[in-house]
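Troubleshooting log. The previous run stalled partway through. Resubmitting the same two chains, unchanged.
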Amino acid sequence: MLDTFVIPLLQIAVLVNAVLVAVTFLVLMERKVMGWAQARLGPMRVGPYGILQAIVDPIKLILKEDITPAKADKWVFTLAPIMSLVPALVVFSVIPFGPDPLYYVADINVGLLFIISVTSIGVYGIILGGWSSNSKYPLLASLRASAQLISYEIAVVMTLVSVVLTAGTLNMIGIVEAQREAGLWFAFIQPVACVLVFIGGLAETNRLPFDLPEAETELTGGFHTEYSGMRWALFFLAEYANIIVISAIVALMFFGGWMRPFPNVEALSFLDLVPPWVWYCGKIFFFLYIFVWIRATFPRYRYDQLMALGWKVFIPIAIGNLVLTGIAKVVL
Amino acid sequence: MDAFVFYLLATLILGLGIMVITARNAVHSVLFLVLNFLLVAILYVTLSAQFVAVIQVLVYAGGIVVLYLFVVMLVSLKKAPELRSDSRRVGRTGLLLAGVVLAELIAIVWFTSASSGAPPAQAAADFPPRLASDAMLNTERLGWVLYTEYLIPFEVASMLLLVAMIGAIVLAKKNL
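Second attempt completed without errors. Output:
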């Protein structure tokens, strides 16, 4: 009873709250970093250096009026934000924040596949949100989103397959342990895969330079144009939760997850004083920062360039990488 | 408990299947289809076939149905499709096809239950280093069986997909 229900439920409660709080502060971090990148200060008014902005923003969104367009498909319109947020949160259940069972909710032997398939469900939120609004720009945005997500998913999944080949397991804990055995982070064994997964992650989370489904300048905000108040906030939560998911996957699969740097070097064992989940969260934070950094510095792709990049560059590289990994695995 | 879960899932799956074909709005029926596929995935989990369950979600719910939605949203289906000139003939064809599928399903159940007592062909025995054993994990075992015992059906299926893909490209491109 305690092991099967109470402890997992507590873990889930802690995890979901941690993710949602992290999202609000991620938004603040984004605004601050973007501000500094553009020689501004960013939010400064609420709390010291604007830190409390992360708390007042959600309160404002909850208090705002929630509008459903008269000609919208009400059921689907209500369902869409939920369908986009829930998969983003479900993914965290199989991400291990440390080696022992206290740090993860579930340890399933197809962990990585589970993550890929659950994130692939998340696209429905965007597609249906755009469609059910019964408005032209959101529909265009959701068509773009579905095309983009399918194209980049193929490349990302194929690249992840080559990492799975290197690790020899689909289990998330197994992948981290394989990096300990190899004595090297997979970022150094599979550098191409690492870059490809990160760029594909940018595309899958609709971030700049791939934020075509939102594209304020062309589509007035894209698929969530007709949404307001908390429903709009759910889309936003989903997007940022997905950014955390991508960062967590990259940190886990290519940068050793919860392990300290050089886990096999005895001389550095004083680093073990820092608990494993702190190492992992630090690595995740690093990639979150890169996400923001990229947003502040890159211009948006044109739509045809985006599709050409996905199908004519990423997928061939992913296939090539997979074939080479397979050959290396057989030869070595 | 297992039987209860199975019958609950089966009822829901069949009910959703009926919703898929009776829903007036094409997008709604695609949504019911997604839900249907997710429940089928749960059914696989109860049969402890986690790999198949995850692939079901990834390929069907996450990939193919997204393409369905893509097409359904592009084609305006606000108006009811024009009635065929001879609706009775369409009905008869449908009935015939349904009968064929039913016969096929019965045949599959019949033959598998008849041969379930016998051990499967020992093609894997030709590869002495690693046999498909109970110690292997789900995914590993599936991959092993797929590339030894069922290699030819597997390759034939992939050829079929390749032919379909080339056919689609030839049809879509006027001048290659």
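Takeaways: The mean pLDDT of chain B is 80. The two ends of chain B are 58 Å apart (CA to CA).
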